[in-house]
Amino acid sequence: MAPAVITETAIDDIKIHIKSGPTTAPEALAAVKARFVERNPTSLKLHEEAVRSLPGGNTRSLLHTAPFPIFMKSGHGHTVLSEDGHTYTDFVGELTAGLYGHTQPLIQETLVDAIQNIGMNLGATTKLESRHAALLCKRFNLDLIRFTNSGTEANLHALQVARKFTGKRKVVAFTGGYHGGCFSFPEDKPTENSVDLHEWIIAEYNDLADTKRKIEESGDVAAVIVEGMQGAGPAIVGTSAFLKQVQESARKVGAVFILDEVMTSRLAPGGLQELENLQPDLTSLGKYLGGGITFGAFGGRADIMSIYDPRDGMALAHSGTFNNNVLGMAAGYIGLSQIYTPEAAVSANAQGDAFRKALQDLTPGNKMAITGRGTIIGIHFLKDGKKELASYRERQDDHELKELFWFEMMEENIWLHKRGYIPLILGTPQEELDRFVECVKEFLARHESLVKL
């Protein structure tokens, strides 16, 4: 069913009530939702059309918002234009895949050249894939690498080869972890759409004792998979001690240590593993490393990855029509070699750290908390006022405040994911980062009675 439209009379009644004095969170939320409907009639119409052919009008769950999603028409640089005619500064950043923005000139030139002079997909090996592979191996300290179509696929195959290599089945993952559409662990068990439901051992993120116990005492552990910073947290950072414990315990029992860097590889020239001096057996990659084209990869130790060597008659099979697609190989290489160079990565993450610090300076005495690292930031509204989060389970979300914040930032033409996850886009002007900070400051002042502890 299409959502009910809030009438003009209802909107007027809400506005009159708000002007009469302080509001409760439900009243403020009802008012901003009414304004949202008023402001975005074309998106509502398009949503009503979409539900006729898509379940709920949606084919990517994370993009759903109530009462209906905003439909985007186009993007340019660090901005997006909605079908309702509003231009937003993009702080969604395609959940880290949009690092280069929407119209990066060199990426565009590369894609046009590839389409015109090479072709869309040749059904053959090309020099583009080995060129990109060599760059990725050098950048992220990998012996060998293989390509997939997404980070989800990268983790799927990394787990398969770990099981083949060890001859074991169980995998240790962590509460709050997300490793793709079929690998999600919000609590102490996988979600029902996860694969291999009975082969997971779930340890507590950032809990050294539980991590050591689950890895070393469970038996039959083929692999341990972990994010150095949990994207679904959003942006809950793993401590150095915790990540070293994961590595140490995995080595102790002969399990394959898989570091999921699908989102975090952008945090330093050599990824988060460089920052933390980690030596994972396998690393999974994705998102921006295809230059904006669908992409995934996994790689690491030669003795593990050689299991895929097709020259060996007993090799583990790994196919995929678009694994080595021309566009992703071409754009990914240009992006990493000429745009997100090591120097650019250092500069971008320093800017992200400063932006996060400016937001954190607004949080004393209120329910807002800011987490993250470098170019990836998480915004939280927590009932207990906690400023640091060790795990997903520590979150005591004030859902009404979080939703109110999202709707009001939309009115400021700031495009955010409702989760509060912000991966910065290269080239976003400092003025826009400063404007975001001011909008947050004004939100906290406007709703002081709701946000104060």
UniProtKB/TrEMBL annotation:
It comes from Polyplosphaeria fusca. Keywords: Pyridoxal phosphate, Transferase. The keyword Transferase applies. This is PLP-dependent transferase. PANTHER family: GLUTAMATE-1-SEMIALDEHYDE 2,1-AMINOMUTASE (PTHR43713), GLUTAMATE-1-SEMIALDEHYDE 2,1-AMINOMUTASE 1, CHLOROPLASTIC-RELATED (PTHR43713:SF3). InterPro entries: Aminotrans_3, PyrdxlP-dep_Trfase, PyrdxlP-dep_Trfase_major, PyrdxlP-dep_Trfase_small. GO terms for molecular function: pyridoxal phosphate binding; transaminase activity. Its cofactor is pyridoxal 5'-phosphate. Signal peptide: none annotated. Gene3D superfamilies: Aspartate Aminotransferase, domain 1, Type I PLP-dependent aspartate aminotransferase-like (Major domain). Transmembrane segments: none annotated. Belongs to the class-III pyridoxal-phosphate-dependent aminotransferase family.
